Each structure stands twice: as structure tokens, then as C-alpha cells.
Fold this sequence. Notes:
Keywords: Hydrolase
Number of domains: 2
Family: Belongs to the Nudix hydrolase family.
GO molecular function, one term: hydrolase activity
Pfam families: NUDIX, WHD_NrtR
Distance between the termini: 54 Å
InterPro entries: Nudix_hydrolase, NUDIX_hydrolase-like_dom_sf, NUDIX_hydrolase_CS, NUDIX_hydrolase_dom, WH-like_DNA-bd_sf, WH_DNA-bd_sf, WHD_NrtR
Strand content: 25-35%
Amino acid sequence: MIENQNIRVAVDAIVFGYQNNQLYVLLIQQKFGSTESYWALPGGLVKNDESLQEAVKRELKEETNITVNHFEQLFTFGDDVFRDPRNRVISVAYFALVDPSKLKVKADSDADNAQWFKVDEIPALAFDHNFILKKAIERLKAKLTYEPIGFDLLPKEFLFSELENLYCTILEKEIDRRNFRKKILSYGIIQETDNFSPNKTGRPAKLFKFNQQKYNDLLKEGFHFEIKFA
């Protein structure tokens, strides 16, 4: 029998955004405690009457004013028993992909500030959040090559060059753009729209959009998405 066990369960949210050929993550600035003024991932303790998914959505809303409908569980962090100086805390981390232009970030609750940071300009974070973020970036890079999650980071309609740049930026690799375009279009999961880029300079370019229904139908037929890089 384990007596006097005092372990708390927390959730942390890694919310990635993509704009102007840069990958960002949403951070909050701590307001209280020994980590006051440190930046951290949004998150907090799970209430007795809520699920993990409910907890991470609530904490994100309370601390940053944004709502994310879909999260994916990343990992459970608790091997370091001293990861939180206040208590023995095990954290279940979730990550999400969003279009930042559609969200209005505003600090609330126990956060002094909330803002987007470029992933290559992350400060020293509270707790073990630098390690958690590192794991999330590794997962994002891996998933980009076998699942079309990159579309979640783009506007509903986008230039094909924006999709190419997204892959180059996140994977930190150059791609053969001709082969990449041929490969993506061969899947039939994106379609050309009748709309053009609003850019005033250069030749107007057609916008594309991701066809979620087509992708779902293909999955039922055993479709396997794969993007390889040399």
C-alpha cells in the first residue's frame, strides 16, 4: 500500500502557428510563485471533475483567450520528480496547429502576458517546458512526412508556394519544388480554386485549398500519405 501519496496531474498546451514563413509557439508569462516572470507553455492542474482534454482547453482559454477544438496528446512528462518546485506533478502535454491570423491572444487568469514566439527564439522557460517543446517540434516534423497536418497551419485558401515554404521552414530542408508539387497534386487532396492571390505585384497566382472529405475517403481505401526528402 502506498501511503500519503501526493501526486498532482497537470496539462500543458503546445500551440503551433505559422506566419510569414516562420513557425511560432504560443507562450504565457507566469504571474505568481517561484517561476514568476518566466515564460511557459499554457497549462495548469486538472480539476477533479474534468477530463484531460477539457482541462487543456480550459487552461488555454483562461490564460490566452483562445479556443482550440482539436488537440493531439504528445507525451506524459514525470520522470523528473523535481520538474515542478511546488509539488510532485505529472504533466500530460497536448499539441495543436492553428492559423494565428484567426486568433486574438490576450493574457488572463494567472498569466501576466501571452504572445507568439518564433521557435528558434525561445527563451529559458519555466519547469521543463523547453524539453517539452523540443519533443513537440520533433513530433511535428515527423508527422509532416506521413500525415497532411501542414494544412492546419495555413489559411483556408493558400498559394502552393506557401505550402512548399511551410515544409522547408519546419523541416529545415530544401525541397525539389517541382517533384514536391507533382507528388502533392497526384494525391488529389488539394484542389485549385477560382480565386487568386491578392498580391498587387507580379502575375496573379491561383489559390488552393485542402479537400478534407477527399482525404477521409482515401483513408477508407487504405491511402498512405508520404513525403520524402533526400
